[in-house]
Amino acid sequence: MLVKILHYPHNIIMAPVRPPKPTKPKKEKKTPPNEDDILAALAERELKGTSFRTLALLHKVPKSTLVDRAQGGVSRMEGHRHEQKLTPAMEKSLRDWCTQLDD
To answer: Nearest-CA neighbor of 71 among 98, 52, 47, 90?
Structure first.
C-alpha cells in the first residue's frame, strides 16, 4: 500500500493512499442497420435461400430484424409514418422551397 506524507505546521502525518481503480473501456454505441443492407439481405434470401444467420453475419444486420421483415414487419420509418406532421409530398415541397431561398 502506498503512503502519502502530509506536512502540517507542527507534525507529519502518514496517510494510506489507495491506487486508482482501473477504468473500463467504453462500449461502442450500436448504429441501427442500414435499410439498404436489410433489403439486400432479404433479396439474397429470396434468390439463394441463404439462412438468416449467414445473412446477418454477411450484411451486418441483426438476425431478428431479418426474420421480422421476412414475416411482414415494417421499418422504423414506415412504422411511425402515422405520427408525422407532414406527408412525404409536403416535406419535398418544403425542402425544395428552402433550397430555392438558399440560391
So the answer is: 52
Residue with cell 421483415: 69
> Cα–Cα–Cα angle for 73, 77, 80, nearest 5°?
85
Tell me the C-alpha to C-alpha distance, in Å, between residue 13 and each of 1, 16, 17, 19, 20.
16, 10, 12, 19, 21
What are the tens digits of pLDDT across the range 25-46?
888 887 888 899 999 999 999 9
Indicate the pTM of the whole model. Answer: 0.58
What's the CA dihedral at 94, 97, 101, 103 to 10 degrees? 120
